[in-house]
């Protein structure tokens, strides 16, 4: 009996062994394919390394070694993006006072003089508190007088002094160095407060466009998205008081400001008025890079609402992309974002010709500080697919219609974590289909600069561990790409299949 049972079990054992062997072989094949075509051939950086890199990233120009303070009328900088994840690190303790305010915000304790009878008095909400590790908001109501040319705000209801910088990048001391500090003070006890010279019936909102603004990515991540998030609730009844105002910057985004406020932006540091308002808010809230968390936002607004506001501001007609292009019955449009310095496409014309041969209507554009924002926004809005090497120019995805495809070309060097936070992660919330094209070593100009056994080519994460400056110098400042045209065409075919179908002509 036992012999018979053993003979019946034997084929099952053999069958199980064959199945296991087949599964292992399949995993090996998939691993090889993924390493060759789908991702970096290097391992992922550990969480500690990523956190160190996130906290050390600085925005710099292509031509200069370090950021400088931007003066009124200064030029826009072509700078790199930070990849800070707001959930990753604790609130920074910039000063002892900042640490005190943070502790108060977390504990819910009041400020100023301690209540003698804590049992009878409710604890007072702090005037200034951290809304995230990179944003602080100060808010008060009453008799409020803003003396912008000395960066001082007098508030009758205060019992102590507060200091704040209205720019959503508190985690980055380099950026914050260039941001003007505002002092919130109680009314003087021995003299009358400054007399009002201009009265406003609506709340005042103070924000800054210093820091790293001037770079398109930071314009949106650090200033515009937080501004929308923080002021949409006022329904236009709010007076913007802009610190460190750059006239060219305000002109660039004036259509958006007019969607958020019915009043002209005030250059608060350079006028001689004492602005009196019934309520003041200093500093915008921040949720995440290029994004909004609707559950945390007033009115449940989202980044899609922000995109809709941009469409209204710049008069953009297309709400949705299509395989049939703008008309729904023509060619889909491919927009190639060009670059003139680092991370250039070395075979850009060949890429355009290959795409045209596949049936795309191809456009090539290189945005810079002189580009008219409205004109460029309309061009991006006309695209069904947009492709570009990692850089600030991809921020224009905010103008893409819903369902459009963004292809981010990821430079060689294990940069998937960087490109993920900056553009990949925000894309889905913006109703944009994201794809990446990972540059292999044979497609990179680095192969011409280093011997094959050099650490830059063989061990990118060893370079990452040397800090942001080393990473930037090796993989962002000195690298151009020559895309494999067969691989590029395969990527475009995939992108085309992901577009919404063309409209069916009426019978």
Protein model, in words:
34% of the residues lie in helices and 16% in strands. The termini are far apart. Residues 1-9, 33-41 and 55-121 have low confidence and may be disordered. Helix 10 links the parallel strand 14 and strand 15. The protein has 14 helices and 15 strands. The strands form two sheets. Strands 1, 2, 3, 4, 5, 6, 7, 8, 9 and 10 form a ten-stranded mixed sheet that branches. By secondary structure, the chain is of the alpha/beta class. It has two domains: 125-299, no CATH class; 315-498, Rossmann fold (3-Layer(aba) Sandwich). Residues 75-87 have a biased composition (Acidic residues). Keywords: Glycoprotein, Glycosyltransferase, Golgi apparatus, Transferase. Pathway: Glycan metabolism. It is a single-pass type II membrane protein. This is Glycosyltransferase 61 catalytic domain-containing protein.
């Amino acid at each position: 009996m036992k012999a018979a049972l053993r003979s019946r079990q034997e084929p099952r054992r053999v069958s199980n062994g064959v199945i296991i062997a087949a599964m292992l072989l399949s995993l090996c094949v998939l691993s090889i394919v993924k390493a060759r075509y789908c991702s970096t051939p290097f391992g992922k950086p550990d969480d500690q390394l990523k956190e160190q890199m996130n906290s050390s990233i600085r925005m710099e120009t292509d031509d200069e070694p370090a950021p400088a303070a931007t003066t009124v009328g200064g030029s826009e900088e072509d700078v790199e993006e930070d990849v800070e994840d707001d959930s990753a690190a604790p609130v920074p303790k910039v000063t002892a006072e900042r640490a005190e305010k943070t502790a108060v915000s977390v504990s819910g304790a009041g400020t100023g003089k301690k209540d003698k009878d804590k049992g009878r008095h409710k604890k007072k909400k702090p005037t200034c508190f951290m809304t995230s590790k990179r944003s602080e908001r100060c808010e008060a109501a009453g008799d409020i007088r803003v003396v912008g040319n000395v960066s001082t705000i007098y508030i009758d209801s205060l019992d102590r002094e507060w200091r704040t910088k209205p720019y959503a990048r508190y985690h980055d001391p380099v950026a914050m160095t260039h941001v003007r500090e505002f002092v919130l003070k109680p009314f003087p006890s021995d003299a009358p407060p400054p007399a009002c010279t201009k009265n406003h019936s609506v709340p005042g909102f103070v924000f800054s466009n210093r820091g790293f603004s001037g770079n398109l990515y930071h314009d949106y991540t650090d200033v515009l998205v937080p501004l929308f998030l923080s002021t949409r609730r006022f329904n236009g009844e709010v007076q913007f008081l802009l610190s460190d105002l750059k006239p060219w910057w305000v002109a660039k985004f004036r259509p958006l400001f007019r969607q958020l406020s019915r009043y002209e932006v005030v250059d608060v540091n350079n006028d001689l008025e004492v602005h009196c308002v019934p309520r003041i808010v200093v500093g915008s809230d921040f949720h995440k890079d290029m994004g909004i968390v609707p559950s945390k936002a007033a009115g449940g607004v989202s980044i899609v609402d922000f995109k809709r506001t941009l469409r209204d501001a710049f008069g953009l007609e297309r709400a949705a992309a299509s395989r049939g292009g703008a008309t729904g019955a023509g060619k889909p449009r491919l927009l190639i974002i060009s670059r003139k310095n680092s991370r250039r496409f070395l075979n850009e014309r060949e890429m355009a010709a290959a795409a045209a041969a596949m049936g795309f209507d191809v456009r090539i554009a290189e945005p810079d500080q002189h580009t008219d924002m409205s004109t460029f926004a309309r061009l991006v809005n006309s695209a069904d697919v947009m492709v570009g090497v990692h850089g600030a120019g991809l921020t224009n995805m905010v103008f893409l219609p819903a369902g459009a495809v963004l292809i981010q070309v990821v430079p060689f060097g294990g940069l998937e974590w960087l490109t993920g936070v900056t553009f990949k992660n925000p894309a889905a919330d913006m109703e944009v289909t994201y794809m990446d094209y990972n540059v292999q070593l044979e497609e990179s100009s680095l192969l011409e600069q280093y011997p094959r056994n050099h650490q830059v080519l063989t061990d990118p994460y060893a370079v990452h561990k040397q800090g942001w400056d080393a990473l930037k110098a090796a993989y962002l400042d000195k690298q151009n790409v020559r895309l494999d045209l067969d691989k590029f065409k395969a990527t475009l075919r995939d992108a085309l299949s992901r577009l919404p179908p063309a409209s069916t002509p009426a019978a």
